[in-house]
Structures are given as structure tokens and as C-alpha cells.
Amino acid sequence: MKLAAIDIGSNAARLQISTVLHNDSIVSFKRVEYVRFPLRLGHDVFNFGALTPESEVRTTKLMQAYKLLMELHEVEGYMACATSAMRESDNGHEIAKRIEATTGIKIHIIDGQKEAELINNVVVQALDDRQYLHIDVGGGSTELNVYVNRQKINSKSFKIGSVRLLEGKETKGAWRKMEDWVEDNIDTSQEITAVGTGGNISKLFNLASKISDTETTLAEIERMQSFISGFSLEDRINKLRLNADRADVIVPAAGIYIAVMKWAGADKIVVPDLGLKDGIIQLVYGQLKRCKPNF
């Protein structure tokens, strides 16, 4: 059985198709297809408050392409979710309805709390009983979650993201609110480790020196931010081989991870290969299992 997730973010839209694997009583998901396309919806919304007709056309075409890929893979269940850009757009819901009418793909515009919940459902599997601060940086928002003994203690979504920072459209006072929240919700008497999710931290992690297969240090993230920022945008693309839509946002995104880690006193960061798309697939599996008693 194959399941799929479509994640429509402020920077890019992703399709992930995974096979469901059963090993005795253990269920796992193996990625068999992954496509990412840089729609950059946040550019429209954070500057103009709404999606442009051009963005609607491109998003519709992309959903048609994703639908064809899902049909070729004979996907049995899927869900499409849109986050910060589309939920803040004045015409986001209207466009989602038109896209569904054209393509048959229903886009669920989810709030920050639901977005964090879906990500947390898979991230918690990578944690132990220590204190963790989960940092998920997207194009339009940053979700923070505090875990102790694998239990979520508190969470908050902030309107600070890589595309929003690039456009200079972060909400007034958002940095101070985020810093205050971290200070109010972190137990500084205990050691804390950061957990980073999002495309930018994954790329930074791939470039950085590592403590283990999934862990690096704050110092390494700072070093990589400084290293990348020393290149022009053209050289980031041609010499560092970064995608064009990654090359411009990776430095401001790194700044968010660095700031939050410093506020929390976290010297290390775990970077699991997990994100919203994985949480969506897990949700789809749960829904199908409930609908099919003999699944």
C-alpha cells in the first residue's frame, strides 16, 4: 500500500509518496517518491496580502502534476495541507476551492497548532526522556515545542520564517515575543537539546561537521551560516550547489535556529529526517486504518 502527502508551504510545495511496511506488529513508512517545487507563495502573501493569479495558475498546474504522479504510483490515500502563506492569504480559501474544482485535490488550510501537532507526532519518536526544544522553521512561521520525558509541555507558533525575513515582513515585536516565550518555558536548571526540522536546517546539517548521524552543535550551525553568507547568491547556487530558492533563505533561516538555541542555552541540535509531510502520511494511515477494520 502507498500513501501520499502534499505539503504546500510558504517557500515550496512538496509531494512525498511512501509505502506502508508491516514487520510483525510494527508499522513503518518507506519513502519511494519525493518531489519539491519552489512556488514561493509567501512572496505574494507577505507583500500583498493575497495570492496573485500567476501563483494560482502555477499551484493548480503543480497539483495536476502531483495528482498524475499519485495515480501512477496507485496511491490509496493522501492528504494535501497548506500552511502559513495560504492561511494568511485573503484569497487562500477561495483559491483552494477553485484548485479542488479543477484538479480534484482538496487542500486543507491548517493553522499553526495543527501544523505543529502533525510534525510533533513523528518527531517525538526520535526523542528520549531528556528536555528538548523542537524548532521548526518554515517560510512563514516558526513553531516551538518543549518536551520533557517525551511529553509535550508547551508549544507556540510565531510569525517569523525564512521567506518572511527575506521579504522584511516579520511581524513587529515577534522576535521579542519568541525570546520571552523561550525564557518563560525552558527549565534552565536542566540540560536542553534542540531538535531542528525544516528544509533549511536539513541542508545546514548536511554541510556541517557532525557529532553523530543525527546531531551537530550550535557552533557548527553558526560556522555554516557565516560560511554561506560569505558567498554571493550566484556563488551559493553555482559553487555551493544550493537550489536557487534555498540559496536566498538559508542564511535568515539559520539565524532563527541560532537565536532560539542561544536563548534556550542549547549547545547541540538533533536533526531527524522528518517533517510535516511525514506527519501527514501518518495521519492518512490512521484514518484508513479506522475505516478498514481488517486493514
From TrEMBL:
Start and end residues of each Ppx/GppA phosphatase N-terminal domain: 31-281
GO MF annotation terms: pyrophosphatase activity
InterPro entries linked to this entry: ATPase_NBD, GppA/Ppx_hydrolase, Ppx_GppA_N
PANTHER family in alphabetical order: EXOPOLYPHOSPHATASE, RETROGRADE REGULATION PROTEIN 2
Name of the protein this chain belongs to: Phosphatase
Species: Spirosoma validum
